[in-house]
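Follow-up to my post from last week.
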Amino acid sequence: MAETLATNRIAERKLRDRQARRAQILRAARKIAELEGWPNVTVRRLSDEISYSQPVLYAHFGSREGILTAVAVEGFQELGLALEKARKRSKRESAVESVAEAYLEFAASSPALYEVMFSLGLSVPFGAPDTPPELRFGFSQLLELFEGRDAKAEVLAELFWASLHGIAELTRTKRFPRSRQKERVRVVVELFTRS
Amino acid sequence: MAETLATNRIAERKLRDRQARRAQILRAARKIAELEGWPNVTVRRLSDEISYSQPVLYAHFGSREGILTAVAVEGFQELGLALEKARKRSKRESAVESVAEAYLEFAASSPALYEVMFSLGLSVPFGAPDTPPELRFGFSQLLELFEGRDAKAEVLAELFWASLHGIAELTRTKRFPRSRQKERVRVVVELFTRS
DNA sequence: ATAGAAAATCTAGCAACGCTATAATGGATG
DNA sequence: CATCCATTATAGCGTTGCTAGATTTTCTAT
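User reply:
Got it. Predicted complex:
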């Protein structure tokens, strides 16, 4: 029983292995989704990809939906960071434009990731008390853009988000031609800076 | 061979039967989707619902996706009509508001229908030359709101659509609380009328 | 009216899916 | 080294979208 030292080492190594494999699974899922679409991200396919049997995946995530949800959370994290970077790098008056560009760039460069965050059926509500902090973080970046500048900053941030999401989604699903994208950004920025 | 008369009657009846059954299938699909979600709209379930075997559905629509696409087209038709009605019933200066309300009302009252139109993976592009007229019709209603009032009416209409779609989608997927919806409409209308 | 052609419909089954009970295997502990 | 316990694999269940082939029904033509 005096070997709590070695025992800890072993436990740590096991934990690292677990996390490494978890990351491996998520990486494989994202790669397949981005290249071949989410329907091709099957549990069997993933278990092939990581050279483990299917039950291992269920030990990690409980269900296929659990895997997609984990990827979505990663996505929200990354989106939040991208928006934060864009906002902090720019001057006060051009912040809205920078953030808009960063948002649409994110959605355009990782369409499958964006899809799993918003378009697939999984339930990742925001208002609930158990909302992961990664999700709040992204929206807080939008909120800060209007904080103080207007009485109804929250509604403005929501609408700004809705506009960007609408553009991203209608572009991703081929409803908007990609050609006029720059002009769309210009006008939406105009709308949200003149208020 | 002189009976082209009776032959025509028979052909007509068969056509009517076909269309009636087609409508029956779509009605069943929409009902199940609205009550239990699209994953529960299986081909077997539908074949049960209309008391025909599965291959009959494939004779009509070719695939499950074909059924969903047909429902989506119905949805675009109905959305277009709703927007047209809203626009024509209102005065010039309140048209934007009426259309915005009609759009969000449509999305909120038939969430599954709205979902299949926009959120599910099916490919119903707009720009393509084979785009069904039902799809163009809906957007033309939005376009007319800004026609003539601004040089870049098309971009404005696209952004108005994107904003409404973003609100509808973020509300449907529980990202927005339904409580502030009225205020959102007020502000979005403000944004798009002051330009 | 009835036999034969054609159209419509059903039965039965395949491959692939998400998921899980159970068996086999491996590493840590005394 | 023996024994446990955690980890991993095998194998299978029920359901899915879809389809080939058998079967029945409907129309046509004598």
